[in-house]
Structure formats: C-alpha cells, structure tokens
Design goal:
By secondary structure, the chain is of the alpha+beta class. It has 24 helices and 22 strands.
C-alpha cells in the first residue's frame, strides 16, 4: 500500500470513530437514518481530506449538490412541480452543514416529495391513454429537459405527460401504419411451405386493420410499457437507492469520477478490469415486466444444474441461507447485481416459476465467467501492404491472480503472431476503450519504445510528480505504428496515445479529441476498521467511495484532463455532437500543465510531418468525409428542435431524418471492402465452437467495411512506402561505400 494513501485511510478511521462516538448518544446503529448520517459524514471527510482538488463544501457547493440531485431525480421535468423546487430552496445552504454533522433533513424532504409526485404522475397515464388522440391537430412537444421549465400546477404536469404519451403513441402508430402499408400486398407462405422451409409454424395471415384499430392498439402497447416503467421505477427507487443517488450528487459535484457505491453496488467493481466475473452463466431479459432467463452458457452452473431453463421467470434471489429478495418489478441490471458475486463457489438461490406455472427453488454455486470479448485480438489486412490490426477494448488486468489475464501480455502475443506473418505495419485500435490498469499501459507502451517515461502522475499537494517509466530496453515491435482513437477513448487509452504521440513513435488517428479523463481514482471503504478482525464482525457495511486522488500528465507536461489527446489526423465522427466528453461536464477538473519529463523522441525512417500533412489533405479534400461532416451537423441541429405531434408533419420530419441517416450510413460504407483475414495461428484455435466462429466472423466483417480503418490503412501505406524508400536508399549507400 502506498504511504501517500495511508493518511486517507486514517481520515476514514478517525471519521468512523468520531461518528460512532456521536451516534452512541442518539440511539442504536440499526436506525437507517443514523447509518445515512454516518455515510454522509464519512464521505464528506474523505472528500475534504483525500480528494485531489477538493472544492470548498460551503453554501455554494450545497446549492450545486441540490440542483444536481433534483436533476438526477427528474431530468425531463415531468415529476416535480415548480412549487416543490421552490420549497427545496431552504436547503440551498443546508446540505453542507449536514455533511459536516448537522441532522440530515434535506434528503428526506426531497425524497418524500419525489415519491409523492412520482405516485401522482403514475396515475395519469391510464386516463390519458383511455381516449383516442387527435393526430391532425398542430402541436409540438419539447423533450429536452434542459430547455423546459417545471410545471406550475398539477394540470400543467398532466399536460406534460399528455404530450409525452401522445408522442410515444404517435411514434408507435406511425410504425404500425408503415408496417400495414408494407404488408398489405404480401402473400404469406402456406403453413406447409413455411413449416417445411423454416422448421417453424406458419406466420399469421396479414389482417388489414383500420386506422382507429391501429391507434387503439398503439395506445394499449404504450399503456403496458408505461405501467411497466412505473412499476420498475417504484421498485428500483427504494430509500437506499435514492440515498445513494443523493450521496453521488455530492461526490459528483466534486468531480465526475468520484462515486459512492452502496454495499450491493460495490461487489462487482473490478469485473471489467479483470475481464471476468463470478456468476451462474445465465443471461436475463425483461419480458412483460418480468425477469426471465434469456439464455444459458454451456458448461456453467445454471446449465450444469439441469434445473434452470430458458424462459423460466426469476421471482426471488437469495444469498446462501439469507432471506431472498423478491425481484418482481426489478430492472434486469439490479437483478444481475444480486446474482453476481465476488468469489467462486459462493451460493445463490433462485426461486423460479417454470413455464408450466410450477415454482422451484434452485441452489447454485457461482463460477468464473470470462468475458472473452474484452480481450485483445488481431487480424491481418491485405492490400497495398500487409498490415497487422490489434483491437483492445480495455486495459484489463486480473488483480486477484498473478497469472491472470493482462492486456500487455496478450497484446505482446498478438504482435509476435503478426510479426511471424511478416506484417509491414501495425494498427492499434483503442476506439471506445475506456481505460483500465495504469501499470498495463506502461508495459504496453514499452513494447514499442526502448525505455523511458510513459506518463507523470501527481497527487494532492505533491510538488514533484511520480514518473511511470518503461525500464525494459528491449523493443518488441519497431515498425510503422498507428493508433486509432475516438471520443470514447479515455484514461489509460489517452495515456498510451499521448505517449506514442509525444515520442513521435506513431501517428494518432481519430475524432477531434479523446474523452479527456486525466484523473486517477482509488476505491476506499467507508469503514476501514472492518478490515481489522477485531472489529469486522460488529462493523456495519457503509459501502465504498471511488475517490479521485491523482492527476495524469503527459511526458510533454500537459494534462490529459479535459482536453484529452488531439489526434494527428482528425476524421469526421458521427458522435461528435453528442456532448459526452469530460469537457461537457460542468463539474470536471480543469486542464493544467507541469514541467516536461526527460525523454528522447523516436527517430523514424519516415517523415511524420509529411505523412500527417498528406493525410490531412486527403481527409479535407475527400467528398465522402465532407458530406459526412455536413450530414452530421444537419442531424445535430434537427435533433435540437421540438417534435411535431401532427401525424403528417411527424411522418414528413421522420422521413427527412431517415433519409439523412440513410445517406450518412451509405457514406460510412466502403465502395470496396478491405481484405481482412484471421492470423493462421488463430484460425486453428477456433475449433468447431459455433458461437466463437460466429463472433469471429462478425469481428472480421466489421473491419472489412470500416471507413476509419480504411483511412488508417491509407496513412499506414504512406508510412510503409516512405520507410521502404529510406531502407532501400540506406542499403544502396551501404553497397556503394563497400
């Protein structure tokens, strides 16, 4: 454990003792309100004493937390009334006092109001959807909550819901009209032909339905959806869940990546980091507001039991002999949290209703489920040159097993296989890679450089940053390298891309910038005394906080925070205007810079500037990319407007939008697909596993038509050509001298 981290744990230990001393005079620790106050105070002390760049927890902070929590509860302003919002103003300067020890009142007042208003809203839809809608009337609905005001009266609120429900019915009704039009002249297969050709029952004969019938059926479908929505919402929004949201409004106001995890939420926190988790090997689905078994993984606990089947309804989930939790109305994600565990061999009991109506309790032992799709994989692209392609969806590392999966080792294996096939360049695809293990980034960057610093990390009040270095002088791959990124490439991905860019080791290609997450978090228990065997038995589980403790800096001195990494070659991106980067969060930490590290740029056999300038010219003069950019900007502006609830206008707008998306999709399709093949070393490993073969086929097909991969290949071809010219020139000069 880092010595710099010890004071943070000490703060929590002292905080726990302080709160325990205070609460002794108020009554037992079983009181949920007492527990919530403990959590709130411990979180506050942790943020103030441990956060990298803490904001002052004062009246201004309190007001921001209040606004954030209310928005989280009612983002589209369809639950609260303006009078509720006005009444909450008394807590503008109160929440900071509650964090510092005052009696907790704000959460309960807001929670009570939210629950009451939610129940009111849930009563509207039955009446609203009981009568036909007039889709000839000219009216619009605005769906962007940021542009709306809170309704002033309950009648105004009901009108908000009327328009929203009308929009939902209109959307469904429009689809049904289109479906009727498309099928009215189709002749269905006969029962014999259909069953013989497809091995299934014959499709039902198309029945032409009147507009009024379709409108009524559309309303009925939406009624069922909204009923399920409110059932799930009410079940999900327990006092504990809403309190977690309240605490996360506090941590989220400090910065977007400091989060609170209630005990049930913190169980599987490292799953995506290790590329595996512990479960029963069953995929769940929601059907008619019920949670059912969608599929089973062959060889895993649920499949092995022989007692769980597809379409079984999951009614209750229990941990060992503990009282099971009734999951009726639960969201699938919440049920999954209960089924997954932190250890193999632990027991989970499922109460299921079989399709015949019988009830059965099935005891299962959790097993390790490996998420193979999160692991590195490669392919070979054949064209002007033979190019290796490596896809890495995250920087994973199994922290629990010394010999577990590590992305640096897996990428190294892929490089070795590609070198064996004599590839002339390698593409590293980090698009959508949200980050992961910092040590793995350092090791992976070291595969491409001799040795030296990879990034700088500085903690709170530290004058000198810590240098993360690659100390291995060996280089696994020294040829031309490109790195693909997009707005979803974050954290560890940005460190890797920045290091490659600063060393001039390769060329970065992607959207205008990466995500911009340049901070380091660590998970801290809110009751560290629970780790002491002397106290653990009687210690209450308060959950954990993922706390921002440090900040990343490039070796050139600039932070990756907020600005991210700007690619050398920028390509238009259809998600550019979604405003989902770090800079789009008003609580994000700022950008700054420190002194650059001592490092020596790579000396390549090609001119980086020449390759980059040629690629920029190609993108800027490409009619495809320019059309793509125009379509993206048009769609963004169109999505920002009100939606018509007049059927004719709605369909016209919808057709216009469909045409734009269709044109955009056509621009993303390559006129001629790339030739993408498996590495021969991987082909034999597929065996006869149909599921693995299908996943592999999808992987190759996706690459074949990827316009961004195609552009990257063009850049790579230029790099290889220049390298070959330089090598040939050097060889000729050597022969001349000899």
């Amino acid at each position: 454990m880092s010595k710099k981290f010890l004071p943070v744990l000490l703060v929590l230990t002292v905080a726990s003792l302080f709160v325990a001393f205070q609460t002794q005079g108020r009554g037992g620790g079983d009181n949920p309100k007492t527990k919530n106050e403990k959590i709130l105070r411990n979180v506050g002390m942790l943020l103030e004493q441990g956060h990298y760049s803490p904001k002052n927890i004062n009246d201004s902070f309190s007001k921001q937390v209040l606004n954030r929590f209310v928005k989280d509860l009612d983002e589209d302003k369809s639950i609260f009334l303006q009078s509720d919002i006005d009444s909450f103003s008394k807590f503008d300067n109160r929440i900071d006092d509650e964090i510092h020890g005052a009696k907790l009142e704000s959460f309960y007042a807001i929670n009570d109001s939210y629950t009451r208003r939610l129940n009111q809203a849930s009563q509207y839809f039955t009446d609203i959807l009981s009568k036909p809608f007039d889709f000839t009337k000219d009216e619009n609905v605005l769906l962007d909550g940021d542009k709306l005001s809170y309704p002033k009266t309950e009648a105004d609120k009901k009108e908000v819901w009327r328009k929203r429900l009308k929009y939902m019915v209109l959307s469904k009704y429009s689809d049904m009209l289109d479906d009727r039009e498309a099928n009215k002249n189709k002749k269905p297969l006969s029962a014999t032909d259909s069953a013989g050709a497809l091995g299934k029952a014959a499709p039902k004969k198309f029945v032409y339905k009147a507009d009024s019938t379709l409108e009524r059926e559309a309303r009925d479908m939406i009624r069922k959806q909204i009923d399920r929505y409110f059932t799930t919402l009410k079940t999900h929004n327990t006092n504990d869940e809403l309190f977690s949201s309240f605490v996360n409004a506090i941590t989220g106001e400090m910065d977007p990546h400091s989060n609170y995890f209630a005990p049930v939420d913190s169980r599987g926190f490292n799953e995506m980091m290790s590329g595996k988790f512990y479960g029963i090997g069953a995929q769940l689905k929601e059907e008619e507001s019920k949670i059912k078994i969608a599929s089973l993984i062959t060889g895993m606990p649920a499949w092995k039991s022989g007692e769980i089947g597809v379409n079984d309804e999951v009614i209750k989930i229990g941990q060992g002999n503990a009282e099971p939790v009734d999951v009726t109305g639960y969201a699938v994600t919440d049920a999954v949290k209960l089924i997954r565990g932190s250890e193999a061999g632990t027991e989970v009991r499922l109460t299921v209703r079989k399709p015949d109506g019988s009830i059965k309790v099935v005891s299962l032992k959790r097993g390790e489920i490996k998420l193979e799709d999160t692991f590195a994989k490669s392919a070979i692209i054949k064209g002007e040159h033979k190019i290796g392609y490596i896809y890495l969806p995250e920087f994973y590392m199994d922290f629990e097993k010394p010999n577990g999966a590590k992305c640096s080792e897996d990428v190294a294996k892929e490089i070795v296989k590609l070198k064996a096939e004599n590839v002339e360049g390698i593409v590293m695809d980090l698009r959508g890679n949200g980050g992961g293990s910092l040590p793995e980034v350092v090791k992976m960057a070291g595969l491409f450089i001799e040795d030296g610093p990879i990034c700088q990390v500085r903690g709170r009040d530290e004058k000198q940053p810590y240098l993360w270095k690659d100390r291995d002088k060996s280089i696994l791959y020294s040829g031309p390298l490109t790195v693909m990124v997009d707005e979803g490439s974050a954290s560890a991905s940005e460190i890797f891309a920045a290091a490659i860019q600063d060393y001039k080791r390769g060329i970065i290609i992607g959207s205008t910038s990466t995500y911009g997450k340049g901070t380091v978090q660590r998970t801290i228990p809110l009751n560290p005394e629970a780790e002491n065997p002397a106290f653990a038995k009687n210690t209450e589980d308060l959950g954990t906080v993922k706390l921002t403790l440090q900040k990343f800096y490039r070796i050139n001195g600039g932070a990756t925070q907020l600005k991210g990494v700007t690619p050398d070659v920028v390509i238009p991106d259809r998600y550019e205007f979604f405003k989902s980067r770090e800079k789009d969060n008003d609580a994000a930490l700022n950008w700054d810079e420190i002194n650059k590290a001592d490092y020596h740029p790579w000396v390549s056999t090609y001119s980086s500037d020449a390759v980059i300038n040629a690629a920029k010219d190609q993108v800027n003069t490409s009619s495809t990319f320019q059309s793509m950019k125009q379509q993206i900007e048009w769609i963004d502006k169109k999505n920002d407007k009100e939606v018509s609830l007049n059927l004719a206008k709605y369909k016209a707008d919808l057709q216009q939008m469909k045409t734009a998306y269709k044109q955009l999709d056509s621009l993303y399709k390559l006129p001629k697909e790339l030739t993408v093949l498996n590495n021969p070393a991987d082909t034999t490993g597929l065996g006869t596993d149909k599921e693995r073969m299908d996943r592999n086929k999808q992987f190759l097909n996706r690459l074949k038509g990827d316009i961004y991969v195609d552009e990257t290949v063009k850049v790579m071809n230029n790099m290889i050509n220049q390298t070959n010219i330089a090598v040939n020139a050097a060889s000729a000069e050597s022969k001349k001298q000899n």
